[in-house]
Amino acid sequence: MRIVTRVAEMRTACDEARRAGRTVGLVPTMGFLHAGHRSLMRAAREECDFVVVTLFVNPSQFAPGEDLGAYPRDPEGDAAVSRAEGVDLLFTPMVEEMYPEPGRTTVHVDGLTARLCGASRPTHFDGVTTVVAKLFSIAGPCRAYFGRKDAQQLAVVTRMATDLNLAVTVIGCPLVREADGVALSTRNAYLGAEEREAATALARALRRVAAEIVEGERDAAVVRGIVIDTIASQPLLTLDYAEVVDGVSLEPVTRLSGTVLVAIAVKVGRTRLIDNATFTFEGADKGVDEDDGVIADLGSTCSRADAGSGDS
Ligand code: AMP
Fold this sequence. Notes:
Layout: E1 2-4, H1 7-19, E2 24-29, H2 35-47, E3 50-55, H3 75-84, E4 89-91, H4 95-98, H5 117-120, H6 124-139, E5 142-147, H7 151-163, E6 168-173, H8 193-198, H9 200-214, H10 220-232, E7 237-246, E8 258-268, E9 271-281, E10 294-297
Helix pairs in contact: 6-7, 9-10
Bound molecules: adenosine monophosphate.
The site of adenosine monophosphate has 17 residues, from helix 2 and strand 5.
């Protein structure tokens, strides 16, 4: 595995790979790599000839007062993980390399960024889309792998690539969880033992939602209420949002049909945690129909049986 820190080196390596007839798979990350990141690398490794991982803690997606300074870093561990996953190229630029001078250009995706995390972090997604556009530009034509852990980010980046005709195919990968259901996140490293225990309420809320959906619940307000009640039962958690939205437009829905995203954000101490599940309803226009197929996407370690949806 080659490690490069310069934009020009990264660009040349990707260009050379393509010239040799190899497809490029890009995995953008902020480092402190865990099994969620590894799953993206594996997907890229399976589908692409030349796998590139980027490690860059992007300052512009953190607002003042957020955890930029405290964000965990482990460059040597990250290199070892990447090497073990068969990554070809690791791009680890300094901030000055990515932003030699304050940028005057911002990529903004309208609408999709207004709700959910965008409401509580109003500058966040502009930081994400701007740096991801830069990484797409540097990498060139490729397949880029993003986790459904950050479902809104995936929707926003996908739309950006479409709107700007970028030569990048954005691939969404399943959310990876710990054995107790907690979604893997770099920010879990901030949690004390009691907070970590409290964090299980997010996945529990989603499992309860899945169980009710399997029983036929199609009212978004009821689903939202289940999430709110489950989070409220855990005193260490403060709800930021619980939303039931269309999986593509991210607009709130009243009835569950088509593809629906149930998304949660909480604060535990100073740490902000997010989680979500996507439910797909076949026969979307039929409303409540016991025969509808329901797919509870609760990640790789929460089986469908866990979610109470052994029928799909
Ligand atoms: P981050 O380093 O947190 O910016 O994440 C880099 C990429 O890894 C993003 O596409 C995330 O969605 C993805 N990712 C982070 N945690 C998980 C997880 N638990 N499961 C799947 N993907 C994840």
